[in-house]
Amino acid sequence: MKKIVKFVRESVAELKKVIWPSREDVISSVKVVLVSTVLIAVVLGVVDVLLLLGMDLLF
Question: pTM of the prediction?
Fold first, then answer.
């Protein structure tokens, strides 16, 4: 039981040291991730369609 209490105390102490990002930082990071995801999905979709058309031409 002592180990659990020690673990919780140390965890709380470490969490107090953390510098949490601001709301604006989080929102801008989410925007970057969403835009990147959409762009990669579009590129992969175009590549997929081109490969499909190429396969149709061959066969």
Answer: 0.66
